[in-house]
Amino acid sequence: RRARDIGARVAFFEPRMHEEVARRVLQENRVSRALQEAEFQLHYQPRVELKSRRVVGLEALVRWRNPDGTVDPPALFIPFLEETGRIVEVGRWILRQALEDQAEWARRGFLPLPVAVNVSPVQLREPGFVNEVIDLVAQIEGAPGAAACGLEIEITESTAMSDIARTSAQLKTLRDHGVAIAIDDFGTGHSSLAYLALLPVSMLKIDRSFIATMLEQKDSRTIVEAVISLAHALGLSVVAEGVETRAQAALLERLACDQIQGFLIARPMDAWSVTAFLPQAGRTGAADRTEAR
Ligand code: C2E
Ligand code: MG
Ligand code: MG
Ligand code: MG
């Protein structure tokens, strides 16, 4: 009976498995082509300090421009890249591109600003990851005329809390080489507060689900307040993500949140458009015109 069951299952699943394998091969070929044909693209979203109203950083967000001109958001392809491990290769390209864009802005006379890059747990699990990052920063910042602009790495709360001994050692090495660490989507995972205090982190980013609902839902507002207090108690700065309205920005300012990011300031934009947002040596930052209040 058991054997027949197994037989039936195999017969049932086999054709679908072939389909699945074929689909994967096709998709994986698309990734190689995308890297060759420069179909991946970085957009940047500025982050503003509430106190000064100035742009204090830029987050790199990857996009996939298909040959037909449509653009896929990361939610559509990052999970696949992670499952297949191809995020390692693509992530390498993302880091290099972000640092090169940043160096180019500095060369063109804009004040250096840190750039934040999202890093997947699959990249962190690669044994050579930390050294690669350090080498890349040294290579790009070591180029003639380059400025040290600062790199930040964003990892999600669940990534930060998994395999804590290893992650914490990796993050310490990065920090010792001048790379700042931010915990992304904070509030959506499970944090051990004891671990959080030990991790070499400099920033917490409150997940946008709490920001989106904090004006209507008491619970969300309580969480936002608690995360801000927690961050400050630990000596970290805190960023609210997904800020879309002036009312949200005003509440966050009252709650002493340090920085905001979101459509209220700007939608993610290409590297060229970003220069309109960058402060230039000798004049005040364009952020002053965004009036976050
Ligand atoms: P994240 O790191 O939390 O990035 C913030 C996401 O919120 C971005 O979506 C951004 O476009 C969106 N966003 C920003 N402001 C607002 C707002 O005011 N309202 C709303 N509704 N959304 C806002 P995006 O670009 O689709 O990225 C989604 C997620 O994909 C990111 O979340 C990050 O986890 C991942 N991701 C993006 N780029 C990369 C990358 O280069 N590497 C890796 N590993 N993951 C990436
Ligand atoms: Mg992020
Ligand atoms: Mg986030
Ligand atoms: Mg998020």
From TrEMBL:
Segments forming domain EAL: 24-282
Q: What is this protein called?
A: Diguanylate cyclase (GGDEF)-like protein
Q: Which organism is it from?
A: Aquabacter spiritensis
